[in-house]
Amino acid sequence: MTNNIKRRDFLGVTFVAIATLGGAVTLIGMKQAWNPLPGVLEGGFTEVDLKTLKSGIPKNVMWRGKPIFILKKTMEMEKSPRDLVIDNEHYTVVIGLCTHLGCIPAWKTNQWKCACHGGLFNANGKNIFGPPPRPLDLVPFKIKGNILVLGEEGNEYKKLLTVNV
Ligand code: FES
């Protein structure tokens, strides 16, 4: 009789322990399934320290699978109402996809040249030659001190949207 009870107790405790462990593993699995994938989290916002940029040499970063061109202009480069201006420094911040058919233009002699059909964009991102129908598109951003945060629509970005080039 005593042996029977001990055996039943042991089986009961073992069952509860296994059920608890199984429940915990299931909850952890469900929590991981609900969390956004790392790629989604990374794709949301991209931060660029504008202090690290060299004048006249665009920095290319990826944001949500798109190339972004960030150019700190030299003193000699033409200024544009579409420039982002911080501490008297002028920046071009655009999506690096040709507005003709979406090729990625390359920076050569102070212009972005599109190898696909010969389109040209100046340092402001304005289309100046070839088939591209409009300037390089703006990318949503906001400014946090010297940090450019791609992916959020800050006041500076909203202001640039109103500019016609
Ligand atoms: Fe750039 Fe055609 S895709 S000029």
Low-confidence stretches: none
N/C terminus separation: 93 Å
**Hey, roughly how much beta strand do the residues contain?**
25-35%
Highest CATH level, the class of the largest domain: Mainly Beta
Any idea what the CATH superfamily of the largest domain is called? Rieske [2Fe-2S] iron-sulphur domain
| CATH architecture level-2 label of the largest domain | 3-layer Sandwich
Helix content: 25-40%
Largest sheet: 4 strands, antiparallel
Structural class: alpha+beta
Number of strands: 11
According to CATH, the fold-level topology of the largest domain is Rieske Iron-sulfur Protein
Describe the structure.
This protein has 165 residues and is an alpha+beta fold. The chain has two domains: 34 residues; 120 residues, Rieske Iron-sulfur Protein (3-layer Sandwich), CATH 2.102.10. It has three helices and eleven strands; from the N terminus they run ααβββββββββββα. The chain has a four-stranded antiparallel β-sheet. Strands 6-7-8-9 form a four-stranded antiparallel β-sheet, with no helix packed on it. The chain has a three-stranded antiparallel β-sheet with strand order 1-11-10. A hairpin with a 2-residue loop joins strand 4 and strand 5. The longest helix has 33 residues. The radius of gyration is 27 Å and the shape is elongated. The model has no long low-confidence stretch (mean pLDDT 88). Bound molecules: FE2/S2 (inorganic) cluster. The site of FE2/S2 (inorganic) cluster has 12 residues, from loops.
Main features:
4-stranded antiparallel sheet; 165 residues; binds FE2/S2 (inorganic) cluster; alpha+beta; 2 domains; Rieske Iron-sulfur Protein; 28% helix; 3 helices
